Amino acid sequence: MAADQRPKADTLARRQRLISSSCRLFFPEDPVKIVRAQGQYMYDEQGAEYIDCINNVAHVGHCHPLVVRAAHEQNQVLNTNSRYLHDNIVDYAQRLSETLPEQLCVFYFLNSGSEANDLALRLARHYTGHQDVVVLDHAYHGHLSSLIDISPYKFRNLDGQKEWVHVAPLPDTYRGPYREDHPNPAMAYANEVKRLVSSAQEKGRKIAAFFAESLPSVGGQIIPPAGYFSQVADSREKTSSLTSSPWASPLAMATLLPAWPQPSLWRGHLKPPALSTSTRGVGLFIGVDLIKDEATRTPATEEAAYLVSRLKENYVLLSTDGPGRNILKFKPPMCFSLDNARQVVAKLDAILTDMEEKVRSCETLRLQP
Predict the structure, then answer these.
(1) ∠ CA(61), CA(67), CA(71), 5° rounding?
(2) Can you spell out the DSSP letters for 61-120?
(3) What is the pTM (predicted TM-score) of this model?
(4) Which residues in the chain come in under a pLDDT of 50?
(5) Where are the beta strands (DSSP E) in the chain?
(6) What is the pLDDT of residue 206?
(7) What values do phi and psi take at 23, rounded to 5?
(8) Residue 213 DSSP symbol
């Protein structure tokens, strides 16, 4: 029986038996069985269409025809590693170098972000001869043991912080130690890093690297540079006019969300026990920080989970993140359109309005004798 024809309950039972529970499943209370995707949409086994606000890995959208064709054509000819001489890898490196500062002109092509960060760490340590690393709080750099050790997001729940890891506060002007009302938060956060380095040096330790965020990576084979990344670049260039909806979408999302949905539901109007928010981000990578109280900025963790679950019921796939799991994390593929943004906003607006009405109904009941 084809996987998309197998009953969802059977697929879930097999996953629970065969796949480690540490591999997190979206919407575990009622998982979505996705069988195909196209552009910014994903489809379940019943054919229902979901707007994908999660999968930024598919940069130009799921199953882009140019990318699929290039990978298929390359697979018919050759798929091997990069230790052989081949035009594709050097042509792509040349193309990539033309988009970067002149000093960034030598490349390593790797299979994952974890591999890229592990190599970056080894290069820094080899070059400096030092061991220590400065990282930002809550950061995550990959699944390898070397990267778990420098990822507070992970090591705090595992083996703890190593003596050669120095954690600087996240430069967050909303929740961090230096906020919007600070006269110069950028300098204050930079001074925190300087203090960490000075403190390490006083103890006889020397810094090898500062990891601020994960590094981009590409595959270490002939196919990905030829079939994927070159075609991603081609497809973006062919549709890069700001008058076309796919490439107007970063502008659409960035302009809609800070004032989104309507002032009646955001920033100061909804008071506890309902919600308030802070919206931050660049382009299509946006976080909406849900809080229960503006004074304490207490994370609205349960409410965020409820919102994501309700959005899934309304055929919008979204996830939460952050130390409090209260941040709605938008990172859709770049073909996400202005119409998609409006649909998501409208659905979230409706869910929040319903939540507000339910809270007010509960308050009215409590006031009755």
Answers:
(1) 140
(2) -BT-HHHHHHHHHHHTT---BTTS--HHHHHHHHHHHTTS-TT-------SSHHHHHHHH
(3) 0.83
(4) 214-227, 239-249, 258-273, 367, 369
(5) 34-38, 41-44, 49-52, 132-136, 165-168, 207-211, 276-282, 285-291, 316-317, 319-321, 327-330
(6) 94
(7) -85, 100
(8) S
